[in-house]
Each structure stands twice: as C-alpha cells, then as structure tokens.
Automatic annotation (TrEMBL):
GO terms for molecular function: oxidoreductase activity. Coiled coil: none annotated. Belongs to the short-chain dehydrogenases/reductases (SDR) family. SUPFAM superfamilies: NAD(P)-binding Rossmann-fold domains (SSF51735). It comes from the Bacteria. NCBIfam families: PRK07231.1 (NF005559). Pfam families: adh_short_C2 (PF13561). Signal peptide: none annotated. Keywords: Oxidoreductase. This is NAD(P)-dependent dehydrogenase, short-chain alcohol dehydrogenase family.
Amino acid sequence: MPDLSGKNGFVTAAGSGIGRASALAFARAGAKVLVTDIVEDTVEETCSLIRAAGGIAEGRIVDASSDEDARAVVADVVDRWGSLDFAHNHAGLGAAALPFAEQKREAWQRLFDVNVFGLMSFMKYELAQMEKQGAGAIVNTSSMSGKNGSPGLSPYNASKWAVNGMTQTAALEYAAKGIRVNAFCPSATMTPALASWAEASPEEYRAVTEAIPMKRVSSPEEQAAAAVWLCSDEAGFITGTLLNVDGGDGILGKQ
C-alpha cells in the first residue's frame, strides 16, 4: 500500500461508491481526509467508517457545482491541517440513455455544471494552493466513456472527454511546479446504482460482464486503489495520464 503519512487532502462525492472507497483508502494509507458530499448522512457514515478503522477524517457538505464551495473546501483543508497535498475530484453525474437528437439541452447543462464547470472550479483552487506550496497531486475520476463513443450517453460522454482535456492541459501547465495531475477511467463498477440495475436486469447485467475480458465488473476498492496510487510518491514521475481501470475493455476499444 502507498504511504501517505503526513499528507492532507479531500475527496468529493465521498458518501458512497468509489468516492467512499477512495476516502477510506486514503485514510488507510495514513492521510488526513476531508470527506465531502451533498448528503449529510452519507458524509457522517464515511467519516465514522474511517475513524472506526483508526483514521483521521472530518466531513463537509458540498455542492460540487458551486465555485464558492470549491474554494471553501480547499481553504478548509489548509486551515485544519496546514497543506493540501492531494485532491480526488470524484463528483459527477450520469444521464439517461437517449439518442443524441432526443437529448435535451437541460440534461447537457445539468451534467456540465457538475462534471465540467464544477471540476474546473475545484481544480482552479487546488492548483493555486498547490502552486503556493510547490507540490501536490490531483486525481480526477473520468470514465472509459471519455475515451470512446458511448451510444445514448452523449452528454456524459462529452463531459468526460472534457475531464480528460482539463486533466492533461493542467498536467502540462503545472508539471514544472511540482504538481501532478492525472485521471483514472473506470468501466463498470459495483456501485449501489449498478447493484440495483444488476438485480432489476440480470440478463443485461450478465451480458455486460461477459463482454469484459476479465468477465466481471470492478469493485469500488479497485478503483480507489488507482486514485491513491496516482496521488502517492510511488507515481512520482506520472502526470497527465488517463489510467484505464477497466478489466481490459480499453484493449478492445470499448467503453
């Protein structure tokens, strides 16, 4: 396991799924973690899990589309613990599957407010603070849909291409300033939403898993391990990468 002892940071959308697994993994690696989400109960649950395992965590209710909340989260970590050493920008929304011509502008706007403009705000304040320090690591949750076409998911697909572009542009701009910026790209992951779908549509779920070269979906913990590693010194010469965590899907050129 990477060693993040003495490091401080935060995870957005850490109330469940990959975000919760990430917050727990950062804490297990020795970091102090500010747990953020828009739902108070889930924030407290994640904090309780971290503390029960001997880790250090505080919680904050955050709207991931808010520029002011992004600024406040960065300031909160620095005020509490003195530095912002890592940030996992995980917050994001999905969309209903519809053909491109049937997608509504409102759906695009809703996704881009969080997935693109919200992420832009968080990265802006993270980068400014890390530049003051002369060091830091940022990891963004992208998607295999940010690398390949995803029929029916045009707003989501486009938003994740934007995530990838912001990640690699920031990586180039800040590489000489001691700041690394990476993203990881999950494929199907056993989050609560996927578990509900698997129960409701077992045949469709079976078809999805059979199409993955490893013949299974990933766990949130496997995705979280990628986030922690990319923010650790073990990945110290890695920046601007878009890491597939996909069971081999990317080799086939699939989402």
